[in-house]
Fold:
Amino acid sequence: MIEAVRLSRDFGGREAVREVSFSVAPGEVVAFLGPNGAGKTTTIRLLLGLLRPAAGRADVTRPVGYVPELFAGYDALAVSSYLGFLARMKRVPRAEVEPSLGAAGAADLAGRPVGRLSKGQRQRVGLAQALLGRPPSYVLDEPTQGLDPAQVVEARTLLRSLASDGAAVLISTHLLAEAAAVADRVVVIVRGRVVAEERPGEAGDLERRFLELVGRGELT
Structure:
């Protein structure tokens, strides 16, 4: 379960998020949509405990598989060595590294130094590390960013399979087609406030609805 309950946070008197509430049940994929600066990243950090809310609370079943928008890592280490290190940190058997790389479509990167990976390759390794231990909750920030079309399809299939296995999956994305393809529900945030929570429908319908909500939110 992933749940935000009236989360609020400001920075230097500037309101970043205001009374944000939504939930992701086990077995569900929820897409978190909003324009740049809407409060998505702040909300994610509050959910993960990386920021303390000014008000409200976050309840997340742990451990959490997290992929940041820009996955880093230790550049000098080979991918398999780096994931082996993370497996030890997470108290997960080293034997899970190889299947996690395979599930993320990154098996071919096992021997490559992290510092020589492209953006899309790093994203696949980021997905692999999130899969270690197959946690009950996932928070994924732009999980298909930098992937080629075939890899995007594979990643979307993976997200649905995680939910089918009973995980709660929250994805932050700018891609409306992605939300329509994988999400059971869509939460739209504008100027730090949730303005809608609904079923995504078709991609074209979602685009029209999103633009309507964003325009209305920016005017209020």
Notes: The first helix runs from residue 40 to 48. The chain has seven helices and nine strands. The beta strands are 2-11, 14-24, 28-33, 55-60, 64-67, 137-141, 168-172, 185-190, 193-198. The CA atoms of residues 91 and 133 lie 8 Å apart.
